[in-house]
Design a protein that fits this description.
This protein is mainly beta. The protein contains no helices and twelve strands.
Amino acid sequence: MGVLCCGECWAQGFLRNRPVPGGGRGAEAEIETDRDSFTPATTTAGDGRWMVEAAYSFIDNRDVPETHSYPELLIRRGVDDWFEIRLGWNYEVGGAGSPISGNVPIDLAEEEEIERESRLLYGAKALLCEQSGLIPESSILIQGYTPTSGETSDTELSVTPIFGWALNRSVVWDSAIRYSTSTLEEDHFNVWAPSTVVKFPIGERWKAHAEYFGIFSDGREEESDQHFFSPGAHYLVTPDLEIGCRVGWGLNDQAPHFFSNAGFGWRY
């Protein structure tokens, strides 16, 4: 398998193998994208499989013009059951960067004037451990972001450990702690973004989720803490094609008022 640790869950216990692809669970399982929530999935694309994700985000900022983010394109290629490589691109226009998508860099800049910028995304995800009893399934996601247009020229890096449990054959609880570098003019600092999401089915084709995530600067000249609550849902058109949307609200004055995100994922 190429994973660092693995094992079967309790045969009759409360914790069971998650019914989604990646980590050698089989190509017939349904698609699970990283764009469904701020928290990435623990799963990979699958050996020899391609996965394409894209989305549009609208962010209603509090004190600066609204932000539009698209296409949030991410192309994933499974090299093995446990490992994938990824490449993507995104364009943003507005008074602040988009902090609400896991497939774009966290940007805490706020400007009264409209700013336009785009970035190239590249990286890899590796499955580290399959779920075994109370031991969660875990993965590591490493990504770089290099500007292709706009005023900034700094390349940023993010590292995200992801872990989660399939609580039964249908409900999944995933969490992550995202670390990234960030720059505002001459101010270089770190950003930490913990998140947790519970996903559950509604019928055979619909799935819903409820999520909390926070974004905290570390070492910034003017520190920033943002808290969000976000519900969402997606629909399985086929086991390899999904469409979905999510919305969210900032829970404190430093976070945007509201955001919405809609997109799709396709595996082949």
